[in-house]
Amino acid sequence: MTRQTSIAAYHEIKDSGLLSRRRWEVYDVLFRKGPLTANEAFVAFAKESGRALLFDSNTRARFTELRDMGVAVELGVRQCSITGMTTILWDVTDRLPVALPKRQSKYAAALARIEELEAEQERLEDALTDIAIAAGAGHPLGNIARAALKLKP
Predict the structure, then answer these.
(1) How many angstroms separate the CA atoms of 96 and 1, rounded?
(2) Phi, psi (5° rounding) for residue 5?
(3) For position 60, what pLDDT does the model report?
(4) How does pLDDT run across 91-117, given as a tens digit for each residue?
(5) Domain ranges of the chain
(6) Packing angle, helices 140-149 and 106-135, rounded to 10
(7) Residue 46 burial by Cβ neighbours in a 10 Å radius (0-12, 13-18, 19+)
(8) Contact 83/110 with Cβ under 8 angstroms?
(9) What is the C-alpha to C-alpha distance for residues 15 and 20, in angstroms, rounded to an integer?
(10) SS (H, E, C) the chain
(11) 132 burial level (CB within 10 Å; 0-12, 13-18, 19+)
(12) Which pLDDT value is given to residue 130?
């Protein structure tokens, strides 16, 4: 299998610190030992460094981040030599990383959701008002709309 790698890209990434420490550890193992499954990369890293990368979702996220940054690629699936399960086979590309989009803070996301809900509430209140006016006083549908809006008949 021809690997899509570039020694120049590898050295540029290493020398300029374009990846965080954890991302670099994953990228470096994939570059030198790949293509690998995530668990194979974890084991290769542990053997070489004498310390383990955690087998957790936080560490596994580095693979998808590297993919999203353009420096790693999913080649397909195959049976992992560590787990025996069919898993994603990862390798590096010959590209430099692109910046990941900034994640919205939980606070900012909550404020945006509140604004969406307030706009939806206003739209629904307008629709109920239209129903109450169109149905007229004393009509059951108008009474329901008035009750929802807490209006007097």
Answers:
(1) 22
(2) -130, 160
(3) 82
(4) 999 999 988 777 777 888 888 889 999
(5) 7-92, 106-149
(6) 150
(7) middle
(8) no
(9) 12
(10) CCCCCCHHHHHHHHHHCCCCHHHHHHHHHHHHHCCECHHHHHHHHHHHHCCCCCCCHHHHHHHHHHHHCCCEEEEEEEECCCCCCEEEEEEECCCCCCCCCCCCCHHHHHHHHHHHHHHHHHHHHHHHHHHHHHHCCCCHHHHHHHHHHCCCC
(11) buried
(12) 87
Residue (of 41, 32, 36) closest to 76 by Cα position? 36
CB 111 within 8 A of CB 54: no
Amino acid at 122: E
**Which CATH fold would you assign to the domain 7-92?**
Arc Repressor Mutant, subunit A (1.10.10)
CA angle (56, 59, 60) in 5-degree steps:
80
